[in-house]
Amino acid sequence: MVSLNSVLLISFLLFSIGIIGVLIRRNALVILMCVELMLNAANLNFIAFARHSGSVSGQAFALLVMGFAAAEVAVGLALVVALYRKRDTVQVDDINLLKG
Amino acid sequence: MTADMTLVHAATTAASQPSTLLWLIPFLPLFGFLINGLSGKKLRNTKVVDFIALGSVGAAFLLTLYHFIQLVGLPADGRSIHQSLWTWFDVGGARVLGGLSTYKIEWAYKFDALSGAMALLVTGAGFLIHLFSTGYMAEERNDGRYYRFMAYLNLFVFSMLNLVLGANIMMMFLGWEGVGLCSYLLIGFYFDKEYAAIAGKKAFVTNRIGDFGFMIGFFLIFMVFGSLDYDTLMGSVREISSLKSITLFGITHTPTWWFNLIGCCLFVGAAGKSAQIPLYVWLPDAMAGPTPVSALIHAATMVTSGLYMITRLNFIYVQAPVALAVVLFVGALTAFVAASMGLAQYDIKKVLAYSTVSQLGFMFMGLGAGAFTAGMFHVFTHAAFKACLFLGSGSVIMACHHEQDMRNMGGLRKHMPWTFLSMGLATLAIAGIFPFSGFFSKDEILWKVFEGWYHHGAYDGPALNLVAWILGMLGAFMTAFYMTRLMIMTFYGDYRGAGHDPYHLTVPSEAHHAADDHGHGHDDHGQHGHVAPVAHGHSDHGHGPTEVPWNMWLPVFIFAVFAVVLGFLNLPQSLEWLGKVSGIGNDHFSKWLEPLLYQVTAPEHGHHAAPIIEYALMGWATLIWAPGAILLAVWIYGMDPSWSKARAFVTRFPKVFEWVNAKYYVDEFYEWAIIEPLKRFSAQLWSFDTWVVDGMVNGAARVTLLWAELMHWVDEYLVDGAVDLTEYIVQETSGVFRGLQSGRVQHYAFVMFLGFLVFAVVKFFV
Description:
The complex is a heterodimer of chains A (100) and B (766). By secondary structure, chain A is an all-alpha fold. Chain A is 78% helix and 0% strand. Chain A has three helices and no strands. Chain B has 766 residues and is mainly alpha-helical. Helices cover 65% and strands 4% of the residues of chain B. Chain B has helices at 24-39, 46-72, 113-136, 146-165, 169-187, 194-225, 230-241, 255-273, 282-285, 291-300, 305-312, 314-317, 321-342, 348-368, 372-399, 412-415, 417-431, 437-454, 463-491, 550-565, 576-582, 588-593, 612-638, 644-652, 654-661, 666-740, 745-765; strands at residues 17-18, 80-90, 95-96, 99-100, 104-112, 246-248, 251-253. In chain B, the strands form three sheets. A three-stranded mixed β-sheet of chain B has the order 1-2-5. In chain B, helix 6 packs antiparallel against helix 8 and helix 10 (291-300) runs antiparallel to helix 15. The longest helix of chain B is centred in the last third of the chain and has 75 residues, at 666-740. The A-B interface holds A 19, 22-24, 31, 92-93, 95-100 and B 737-746, 749-750, 753.
């Protein structure tokens, strides 16, 4: 039986990898993948706590998040494709229209 | 009427016939004017203009004739037809002598013995002169001015009919101003010529001076009578003249004094309109207008409106002895002076112009002597023979290719038989030869003037009458002389144009007055162009003068016929046998006008035997005096085609000739005594305006400008400075924050993450 703490540790590592990737990677596709990592870390947390507390509502949440993640990936990929068509690049460094 | 009215105006409109057609007499020419004036420019065919202009005046003449015949059928004291169209304006509330007036001025017409006869003259003569104009103005048909001329003539006829047919003084004044306007427009018809424009201006300004007197006069009438209707005025004059005193404007005097004042003021107006001393100067210059205008306005109709006005208001004049004396004296003086000016003129129209002034003087003499019928009768006979002479002179001028100087004419008798015959008859009439019309009218006036002094054999009348009579007799002599001179110079001898000039009488032609703009290049009055009639632009130029077409000589001839026969309408009482023999009767015209004349005392209808002196004077005038003048002129100008006697006279008395020829330098005197000081005064006013008034305005402008400069500086440096400073501060400070906006999403996300982290740390450890 895997203890709750070790699961939470893995989840923490996953989330850390994800957030570091989001913050430092320049490729929009990689950033999207890192966002998926962060979501899955959260999912892992949900499931771990559901199992620990014996309630299934956490698992249901995890399912819901997966659905959202799918939708998010669909929209995100579409944005990246559109971006590529428009600007010929997916490097977020090159996209700085909001610069003051 | 208010209760405090003390004067009750007698209602004297008792026997007056209403009419529904009367308004058409003046309004038909007005419609003609409107149609021609508004659409004439677009009409290609001037025959349409002819039709409208002649048709409207002709129809007005027929209507006048209809009303006149109706008038003849009425009893003598009820010969009046009236039509009131609308209330023109209401002067209610004006404070007049009798209290508050409730008078309303009506737009009303009154057709009675006097105005009916005048209307007949205006429309009849007007129609004939319109007909003459269709021939005389033929050259204008091509250059688009023709419709304008005809429209002005129609407007004149409308105004003149308003003047004579109006039922109150306001209506008369409306026409009075209207004819003045038309006179101005028609004198200045060739307004592109400077002399014509100046002459029109002179006529207008001179008339304004007269109009001022006329206005003062009828304002006073309104103040005294509280009304302007002729009927009311005549009905209440007896009551007013019996008042002890009249107080107006704080001045108290007898009614006679006030009537004298009114009469003199009105006479100033009459002197302006009817060209009497001292306001006659415009009439000779008015000859700058086309000749039909001279005939219609400046001989037959408009210039008689002063006479008409005085006769219409005779009830005031008979009670104003001083005013009548002024009229008599001024009339006599004008008759004499103007006739003498006519002696030395060479311009055929100028001779006739001075003749008109002189004849108008005769008419005023008649009125001044209290013989209103005699004066008015001369208006009618003079209208006939002077219109004939003027139109005839127009024909002559046209035949001689716009030549107006009589020295360049001569011998036209053979070329223009109809014109010669007509003008000859008119000359005999104006000279006063029995039995032409001028004899009956002019000698009646002279006799009445003489009678004032003669005084039923007592010879104790006012000496003024004797003086006036002598002046009148001299004027009559000169009239016969200068008219004969005109006829001989124009019609006898040989034609001196076309280079044929054995006695060197011709002068360089000024041929500039009439419708002469066919490329001669005359642009100034004093410039002598060429010897007439050298080659003009016309195809018919070059050969001698020929008779004018029928539509020109026929009106002249009709006027001549009237000039011959018109005198029989008023055969004097002393020639009773003539009335009996001819079956015409005596004094038709006098009896016709009598109901309109105010009688101070009951009229005497008893038969007086004519004094022997009347026959003596009559015989003297027509058998010796006038023929003597004619023979003198024949002796000087006719017997000797080189005019050596006239030349000898000029050489002998150069000063006399110079003064008469220059019209006694009256124009120059006016220029020096009135116009120049006025101009200097105007120049003073002008400089006051320039320096003081404009100075104030310009000063105000300058102050405003300085203030504006100051404000501009304040705006530029203070207001704009504050705004710029704010902007600068914002610009500079915003640089710091702008650096934070890298535009990279990851930076923002990192900041968010940091914030979250801080939040989490604070949550856990604090």
